[in-house]
């Protein structure tokens, strides 16, 4: 596989998590943390609704599922949506080296800030990620605005 295909495969894991979250009545955002060789270290989805925990964003769930690591510089976080400031802070705090973003049109979080701090950011503009979020925002605006803090 080439790099573009590898990035799409990483995003596909995050999309599976987003779909699972939506099926559970939650917010359809998924993420996965990958090691330098592409192995899945941890995966998760936004579980704010399911668990009643406002801090359980998709990137946080994936990071927690990965467990402790000596370093994160060579890891990749794939996420279906541009990471919010909270999740961008997690990436920066732990030195995650690359973030693959499914889409940033529905919500443009901290990915530009991450770039400015040396994190490689790849925005794939994935139509499935965009359609998933646009539909959710249209159908559940109150829950969406609660999630993004508006």
How helix-rich are the residues, as a percent range? Answer: 40-55%
How would you describe the shape?
Answer: globular
**Gap between N and C termini, in Å?**
41 Å
The beta-strand count equals: 5
The biggest sheet, with number of strands, parallel, antiparallel or mixed sense and barrel status, is: 5 strands, mixed
Please give the radius of gyration in angstroms: 14 Å
Structural class: alpha/beta
Helix and strand pattern: HEEHHEHEHEHH
DSSP strand content: 15-25%
Question: How is this structure best described in words?
Answer:
The chain has 150 residues and is α/β, with parallel strands linked by helices. Helix content is 47%, strand content 18%. It contains 7 helices and 5 strands. β1 and β2 form a beta hairpin. α6 packs across α7.
Blueprint (SSEs and pairs):
Blueprint: H1 3-23, E1 30-34, E2 40-45, H2 48-51, H3 58-66, E3 76-81, H4 85-94, E4 98-103, H5 111-116, E5 120-123, H6 127-139, H7 141-147
Parallel strand pairs: 3-4, 4-5
Antiparallel strand pairs: 1-2, 1-3
Helix pairs in contact: 6-7
Short description:
With 150 residues, this protein is an alpha/beta fold.
Which descriptors apply to this entry?
alpha/beta; 150 residues; 7 helices; five-stranded mixed sheet; 18% strand
